[in-house]
Design a protein that fits this description.
The protein has eleven helices and eleven strands. By secondary structure, it is of the alpha+beta class. It folds into two domains: 104 residues, Phosphorylase Kinase, domain 1; 216 residues, Aminoglycoside 3'-phosphotransferase, Chain: A, domain 2 (Alpha-Beta Complex). Helix 5 crosses helix 9 and helix 9 runs antiparallel to helix 11. The longest helix is centred in the middle third of the chain and has 18 residues. Belongs to the pseudomonas-type ThrB family. GO terms for molecular function: homoserine kinase activity.
Length: 336
């Protein structure tokens, strides 16, 4: 868990590089990273203090290059990077346990789609995501571009990035066999599905309502690319049902996202058949994440109920053919 005091010190050490050493600052959120509002009025910016060990300066530079690409191509609006006085876009602060990295972004006026749900229908979230995927398949990545992969090994393998689902809070010992069977089925289906260019590429990996800002004029700005990396495009669908996969309306939420997505980018029957697998994959990953982030707001709010419910969803994934099977008009399909 990040320390507020530690992040405060790191930000204070970084801000002089931006000519903002005396600027007022206020902590906005403390989760995977620490996010601060710096300055006042028209001079406000948002500072992100990275947690240790997750990203490198090179991988952060790659994230920022993607933001540049999305804005310059007109694909979507993103927040812009605020460089330091010497032009650096990532300022590193030496610490006893290694360098810590700070990035400043322009301040976006408005509220998140989570705060303003009426202003951001789930269909629109699907359309935004599809435009990003479509642009990625046309983009020749710059030299030195490096981001991690959200492949089966990173998500479910030994040493998985978010931990072991079996150690998630609330996971019942009696459910371990069915959970293991579900994880094995997910891995097998992902391997069979493959990583073709139309299926696998650069993804946001957390493109939920909470990570789109809605302006007072209805404009949309995509934020929080810290988890972006190479993965299956339909993994982005599964992020929309994060934490609610078990709820009665989750399948309708996924269907609405997909309806919007398909207006911008077609999919094949094989793609659509993979939706349950990506939802189950994300559920297993989030169960693991709760175990490695015990003091996080989701962990404190959910307790053991989420992990206990993951076994029930594993049974549905394995045995209920209707679970997250989303019917879509054939006219929207792509033929590989």
């Amino acid at each position: 868990m990040l320390s507020v005091e530690d992040c405060d010190e790191i930000l204070a050490a970084a801000l002089p590089a931006y000519g903002a050493g005396d600027a007022p600052r206020r902590l906005l959120s403390l989760s995977e990273n620490a996010t601060y509002l710096v300055g006042t009025g028209a001079d406000r910016v948002v500072a992100r203090v990275h947690r240790p060990g997750y990203q490198t300066p090179a991988s952060i530079d790659a994230e920022l290059a993607w933001l540049d690409r999305l804005r310059s191509s007109g694909t979507v609006t993103t927040h812009a990077v605020v460089p330091a006085l010497d032009g650096r876009r990532v300022v590193s602060v030496p610490r006893p346990d290694g360098d810590r990295h700070v990035v400043l972004f322009t301040f976006v006026v408005g509220g998140t789609g989570e705060e303003r749900p009426d202003a951001l229908p789930t269909e629109e979230l699907g359309r935004v995501t599809a435009r990003m995927h479509r642009d990625v398949t046309d983009w020749e990545l710059p030299d030195g571009f490096t981001r991690f992969h959200w492949d089966a090994a990173a998500c479910l393998g030994p040493g998985a990035r978010w931990g072991d689902w079996a150690a998630g809070p609330g996971v019942r010992a009696t459910d371990l066999p069915v959970l293991d069977a579900a994880a094995s089925a997910v891995r097998a289906r992902l391997a069979a599905y493959g990583q073709g260019r139309e299926r696998y590429g650069l993804v946001h990996a957390d493109l939920r309502h909470a990570n789109l800002m809605v302006g007072d004029d209805g404009s949309l700005t995509v934020i929080d690319f810290d988890d972006c990396g190479f993965g299956w495009f339909l993994y982005d669908l599964a992020t929309v049902t994060s934490w609610i996969e078990h709820e009665p309306g989750a399948q309708a939420t996924a269907a609405a996202w997909l309806a919007g997505y398909l207006t911008e980018r077609p999919l094949t029957e094989e793609d659509l058949a993979m939706v349950p697998t990506f939802v189950m994959l994300r559920r297993l990953m989030l169960t693991a994440w709760l175990g490695t982030h015990p003091g996080s707001p989701p962990a404190l709010a959910l307790g053991t109920t989420y992990g206990a419910g993951t076994g029930d969803l594993a049974r549905r994934y394995l045995h209920d053919p209707a679970w997250f099977r989303l019917p879509v008009p054939a006219a929207t399909h792509r033929k590989d």
